[in-house]
Amino acid sequence: MLVFVSDGPAHRQNRVSVCNSDHTETASRKGLRKKTRFMPQNVLLLTATIRPPAGVPMLVRTDPAQRIADYCQAVDFYCRIPVRYLSRIIFAENSEADLSPLKEIARKHGASDRIEFLSFNGLDHAPAFGRGYGEFKLLDYAVAHSRILQENPKLRIWKATGRYRILNLKQMIETAPSTFELYCDLRSRPMPWADLRIFACSINGYRTLLQSRYHEFREDILHASPESYLHPILEKLATEHSIVTRFRREPRINGIRGMDSKNYSRGANLIKYWIRASGRYF
């Protein structure tokens, strides 16, 4: 179990007595070690579709060459995050694409044993069902088939869209609540929506709250996004489960959006980040 030093108040300066069977000694609290809290072991679960089918709603970044380049950049970035923050990484892909370039990046970082690669045919449904349907179907597969998760049932999962680099992921991990079933961001502007680019959960929390929900995400029936659909559901579940509905840090995302090929870390999107980041209270 990994630990880090807390930011709690300084110890008072009064003296205390420490007794044992042999003697009594006095010590100043000033000299005592700062309190620490345990940081659970975290696994990053990256979702990926390298070869998306034609006709997926709201998806313009469809070139497999561009997408594999995005994923390579992300895997290279996450391999550099120390093990004390991310003990393991799972890269889950649902178009049965060649993952050799990604495995080579892991090898160059000496991280082949740290990263598990999963790939299967998870696109055996109509493209009109939408990206959320496919992604949560992929998540169900990963949770059910990942060797890492099966061997370590107490791991904390951080799910991230695989083409995005969460630049402040270390800070998000450090400031996360000590316990929860689901840690997510329910936003109210410009409309109520649940941020599905990144969230964290326990394995049991995923199974209880999100597993098998992809059947509900068919955009051809909802005529809405999974983000909008999930917002009121998670709000209600939060009254009965351990769900933290606001991040303590605004995710700083670097990557190209699939819906319009705009970069999250440039122009108006970067301004939005700084405005939102300044509104977080701790």
Describe this entry's structure for a reader.
The chain has 282 residues and is an alpha/beta fold. The protein has one domain: Spore Coat Polysaccharide Biosynthesis Protein SpsA, Chain A. Helix content is 31%, strand content 21%. The chain has 9 helices and 15 strands. The strands form 5 sheets. A 7-stranded mixed beta sheet has the order 7-6-5-8-13-10-14, with helices on both faces. The protein has a two-stranded antiparallel sheet with strand order 1-4. A hairpin with a 4-residue loop joins strand 2 and strand 3. Helix 1 packs parallel to helix 2. The longest helix is centred in the first third of the chain and has 16 residues. The protein is globular, with a radius of gyration of 21 Å.
